[in-house]
Design a protein that fits this description.
This protein is α/β, with parallel strands linked by helices and 282 residues long. It has one domain (13-281): Alpha-Beta Barrel (TIM Barrel), CATH 3.20.20.150. It is 42% helix and 18% strand. It has helices spanning 22-28, 46-56, 78-91, 120-137, 159-170, 178-188, 192-198, 229-242, 258-281; strands at residues 13-16, 35-38, 61-65, 95-99, 102-105, 108-114, 142-144, 173-177, 204-209, 213-215, 218-220, 247-249. Strands 1-2-3-4-7-8-9-12 form an 8-stranded parallel barrel. Strands 5-6 form a two-stranded antiparallel sheet. α1 (22-28) links the parallel β1 and β2. It is globular, with a radius of gyration of 18 Å.
Amino acid sequence: MIMPATNALPLAAGIGLRAPHYREVLEKLPQLSWVEVHNENFFGGGAPLHTLLKVREHYPVSLHGVGMGLASTSPLDQRHLSSLRHLCDDVQPMAVSEHLCWNSADGMVINDLLPFPYTREALVHVARRVDQVQERLGRQLLVENLSSYLSFSHSEMTEGEFLAELTRRTGCGILFDVENLYVNMRNLGVDADAFIRAIPPEAVKEYHLAGYSVRDGCLVDTHNHPVYPEVWELYEAVLQHIGPRPTLIEWDTDIPELAVLMGEAAKAQQRLEKLEVCLAEQ
């Protein structure tokens, strides 16, 4: 079942809102275009959900999931889906997103975002699960490209081609994580230009930007640094090809002062506005 698009995030740069900044945001109400939070942190209700609802009074909110395991072969966790549906009903988010990965097998849940081979069989399986999620939520789901540290020799298509076909079959949208693409380009030799060309521009509803770490020569998607110049450069190339979209700065560990996050968002905002000016002049 193809769901109508429900994404209505401002065409601006936002930040990932994490617990260390809750109080400051609510007390000072800084100029934030929008914020994104991790779904699972609010499934238990209580004080976290109360805080999020207060934030929602002042800012558009996007819900970003890390635990659904869209590509897992275990049945979809109905309790997880039910909790997400209730959270959507309470928060009325402007977008809901999830990673394209697997995280469970034989009843065991793995706290990681794991890659899988991009085969026709996997496409049928993931499309069926995306349909189930969108039907349960009653809204479009955005699916995020994954940072990966290995590739599968028996993949039958690239990740970009897989995502493109998934959007055609299900009507889901794409959360294009630019830093993840850069990590895969450096670690696995992924052709970034081919990935960008494969993605239907109209399916892209949001961008993510973050900073990686380097461990033994491998780039690791740790979200604990400012956005590196080479990722900004790739972001600009993506903007030129796909166009301006709501853009999020992610920072999940070694979280800095709120002003640092807002400064990173301002850099993305400048690039969005520059492109919009150029488009208006054409």
